[in-house]
Amino acid sequence: AKGEGRNTFKFYVPKMDANADKRLLLETSLRKALDNEEFRVYYQPKVDITTKQITAMEALLRWQHPTLGLVAPSEFIPLAEETGLIVPIGEWVLRAACLQNRKWLEMGLPPMKVAVNLSGYQFQQPNLLDIIRTVLADTGLDPGLLELEITESVIMQNPDFAVAVLAEIRDLGIHISIDDFGTGYSSLAHLKRFSINTLKIDKSFVRDVEINSADAAIATAIIAMGNSLNLKVIAEGVETEGQLTFLSENKCDEVQGFLFSTPMPSEDVADFLRGRTTL
Ligand code: C2E
Ligand code: CA
Ligand code: CA
Ligand code: CA
User: What residues flank ion ligand 2 with Cβ within 5 A?
Assistant: First the structure.
C-alpha cells in the first residue's frame, strides 16, 4: 500500500511542476525581454467605412521568445500586469509607436494616428501623465496623432477616477477610445461624463452580427449611443464583406479587422498603403 501511495504521488507531481516551471520561465524571461530586445510592435489599420482611408494604426505587442517562440499577448500581458512589468513595457510600446508614427510622416505617408493600448495597471499609475508628456516631448509627435485605447471594464472599475484621468489625457490633445465596448456596464449617464472620442465595438458582437439578432441589436445600440453623444464608433474583428455591409448600413464610422489587414510589422506599412492607392 505504501508503494502505491508513492506511485500516485509521483504520477501527479510532474504535471504541476511543468505548469509552475512554465510560469516561472515566462516570468524570468519577461523581466529580461526588454533588455534583450525581444519585443516587436505590429500595426493594424483602422479604416474609414465611407472613404476607405486609413485613419489610424493600432500598435499590438509581439514577444519573440528565444526558445518558446512567439508568445501571445493573452499569455504575457496578464503576467506583465501581475508583476508590474507592464509599466516599463507599456512605456516602451508607447515610445516605439510614437517614434514609428514620426518616421511614417517623414517618409511622406499621409498623416494617421497611432493607437496604443493602455492596461488597467498603467491607467492607475500616478505618473501616467508624466510618462505620456515625456514620450511626446522626446519623440516630437503631435498629440493629435496619438490615440490611447482603454477598455470599458478598466474605466468602469472606478468611474470617478476615470473621469479625472481621461480629462487630463484629453487636455493634452490625445484621442481616447473605449476598447471592448459592450462587454462592461457603461450607461449613457456614465459615458457623457468621460472625455472620450470613440467607442470600439468588441469583436464578440461583430462575429455573428448578421445571424444573431441579440448581437445585431447590441451593435446598433452602441452605434446609436455613439451618435447621440457625438462619438465615433469603430467595430473591431471585421472579417467578412457581410459584416462590413451590416456595419455600413447601420452607420458605423470605422472598421478594423482581418478583412482589411492582419497586424503587420512596421516595415510593411508603406507597401500596404501604396498597394491600396494603386488599386
Ligand atoms: P485588443 O486591444 O482588443 O486587440 C484586438 C485583438 O484582436 C488583437 O489580438 C488583434 O490581432 C485581434 N484581431 C484583429 N483583427 C481581428 C479579426 O478580424 N478577427 C479576430 N478574430 N481577431 C482580430 P492580439 O494582437 O493577440 O492582442 C490581444 C490583446 O492583447 C489586445 O486586445 C490587448 O488587450 C492586448 N495587447 C496587445 N498589445 C498590447 C499592448 O501594447 N499593451 C497592452 N496593455 N495590451 C496589449
Ligand atoms: Ca485595442
Ligand atoms: Ca478590443
Ligand atoms: Ca480584447
Answer: 117, 149, 179
Q: What is the ipTM of this complex?
A: 0.98
Mind listing the pLDDT tens digit for each residue in 197-223?
999 999 999 999 999 999 999 999 999
Q: How far away, in angstroms, is 1 Cα from ligand 1 center?
A: 52
Compute the distance between CA of residue 165 and CA of residue 195 in angstroms, rounded to an integer: 9
Rounded to 10 deg, the angle between the 159-171 and 128-139 helix axes is: 20
Question: What values do phi and psi take at 128, rounded to 5?
Answer: -55, -45
Alpha carbon distance 178, 31 (integer Å): 29
- Residue closest via CA to ligand 1's atom 25 equals 60
How far, in Å, CA of 242 to CA of 201, rounded? 16
44 close to ligand 1 (CB < 6 Angstrom): yes
| pTM score | 0.93
Confidence tier at 109 by pLDDT (50, 70, 90):
very high
User: Residue 162: CB within 6 Å of ligand 1?
Assistant: no
CB of 72 within 6 A of ligand 1: the answer is yes
